[in-house]
Design a protein that fits this description.
alpha+beta, 5 helices, 4 strands
Length: 162
C-alpha cells in the first residue's frame, strides 16, 4: 500500500472515530446562577405586582437548590415548602399541581411514595424548560393562595433566556 493510500485510510479512520465519539456524548444547556436569579426576580416582580409575599426556590434538573429568596414578611417555613415544590417538579418533570389534582380526586396513595425523593404535591412547582429540555424547576410558597403560588411560578418560567 502506498504512503498516500495509507494516509487517506488513517485520516478516514480518525474521522469515523471522532464522529462515533461525538455521537456518544450529548451536549445540553444547564441552569446557571445568573439564569436562576432572573427567574427568581421575575417571580418576585409578579408577587409584588399582586401584593403577595412568598418564597421562591430555583433548583437544577437534579433538584439541587441553586437560588432561594424569601420576600419580606413571608413566614419562614415557606422557604422549605418552596424548595420541596421545586424539587418535586424537577424530579417528576411536571408541575406539582398535577399531583395535587390526582390526590384531591381520590388517589391518596400518592402520598405514600417512598422517601427516595422529596415529594411535595402542592400547587406552585413548575419545571423550567429551555429548547424542549427541562433544566430545573421553580417552587413558590407563601403567597396569598395556592393558586397564586402557581401563578407566580408560571410567570417566572416565562422569562426569555439570551
Amino acid at each position: 500500500m502506498s504512503k498516500l493510500k495509507f494516509s487517506i485510510l488513517i485520516a478516514a479512520w480518525i474521522t469515523l472515530f471522532s464522529i462515533a465519539a461525538e455521537a456518544q456524548v450529548k451536549t445540553r444547556a444547564t441552569l446557571t446562577l445568573d439564569a436562576a436569579r432572573k427567574i427568581a426576580d421575575a417571580a418576585v416582580s409578579e408577587a409584588k405586582k399582586n401584593n403577595a409575599g412568598g418564597s421562591i426556590a430555583i433548583v437544577d434538573d437534579g433538584g439541587n437548590l441553586i437560588y432561594l429568596v424569601r420576600i419580606d414578611g413571608t413566614f419562614s417555613a415557606s422557604a422549605e415548602v418552596a424548595i420541596g415544590k421545586a424539587q418535586t417538579a424537577a424530579h417528576f418533570k411536571k408541575p406539582t399541581s398535577v399531583f395535587e389534582d390526582v390526590i384531591t380526586k381520590g388517589r391518596v396513595t400518592m402520598n405514600t411514595l417512598p422517601a427516595v425523593t422529596p415529594f411535595t404535591p402542592l400547587q406552585g412547582g413548575v419545571p423550567i424548560v429551555y429548547n424542549g429540555e427541562i433544566l430545573g424547576a421553580v417552587g413558590v410558597s407563601g403567597s396569598m393562595s395556592a393558586q397564586q403560588d402557581e401563578q407566580i411560578a408560571n410567570a417566572a418560567v416565562q422569562i426569555k433566556f439570551d
